[in-house]
Amino acid sequence: MRRRSLSLLATALLASPALAQGGFPSRPIRMIVSLPPGGATDIWARLVAEPMGAFLEQPVVIENRAGAGGMIGTEAVKNAAPDGHTILFHIASFVQTPVVLRRWPYQPLEDFAFLGKMGTTPLPFCVRGDIPVRTLPEFLAYARSRQLSYGTYSPGSSGHAFAQLFSDTEKLDMVPVHYRGEAPMLQDVLGGRIDCAFHSMTGSGDHIRAGRVRPLATLGRDGIPSLPQVPTFLSLGYREEDFGQNGFVGTFAPRGVPPAIHARLAEAFRHAMTRPEVLQRLREMDTIAQYLPPDAFREDVASYMRFWSALVDRMGLSVEG
């Protein structure tokens, strides 16, 4: 009888997720965000950190490690111990920046274990609210009569490449001004120091709706859910192979994380993406929830990397990193 009781106890202990995975997590988990506080990426990360922490029964603590277009924080995760206690929250700059800078401190598809995709977000091209234009054709006439500057939230980002592509396509000769994140870029747009930029609805939506920043057109196929009057570039006649993509948002762990821990982290992220309050907040920020599990997310990133590499090659785009 005693042997049977001990056997049942051992079975129960082995079935415990924490014990079966060596006590994981045994301390708070660092979620590194490769861009500064206050921008869209930081906001998204904080949105899922709390429900992930509740699921894992350990806090998920945000650590902003900005610089080099997001590569500093990303490389830090690549080099972290693969024990599941350090993970990465990132956007499409994960693949964009090394392609544009022609510098590879990490290999996106080989050096990370994919945890899951959150979704994507429309990126509208916007002007300062005091610039006297309401449509993209009006902006083109305005821009051709003067030298304008455009902001980017990092060199090699979507905001950089698509603004430069737009400038090249329309022969506007706009001057890029690079920042370390969307929040400082937005402050200079609001302060009148730069003229236009691609923004995220998550980071800039309140200012866009208040009229302090005016959207003229947006990337992607589907438009902005809360602002259906804003046309897509495609509807205005621009090419889908140039302006038809939106990028991705998601989570990663270092390569080599044990399978059981990888599965636990991926399940924690999936759990966060089922929470009604998370989905509601994403809708409010015009972020389009498109959860994908690890393998499907990896394929999604690989597809985007092919698109991005082809676009950058066509443009001949490169910057010093």
UniProtKB/TrEMBL annotation:
Record-linked Gene3D superfamilies: Bordetella uptake gene, domain 1, Periplasmic binding protein-like II
InterPro entries per the UniProt record, alphabetical: BUG (IPR005064), Bug_dom1 (IPR042100)
Endpoints of the signal sequence: 1-20
Keywords: Signal
The keyword rRNA-binding is annotated on this UniProt entry: no
Family: Belongs to the UPF0065 (bug) family.
PANTHER family: BLR1237 PROTEIN, TRICARBOXYLATE-BINDING PROTEIN
Protein name: Tripartite tricarboxylate transporter substrate binding protein
Annotated source species: Siccirubricoccus soli
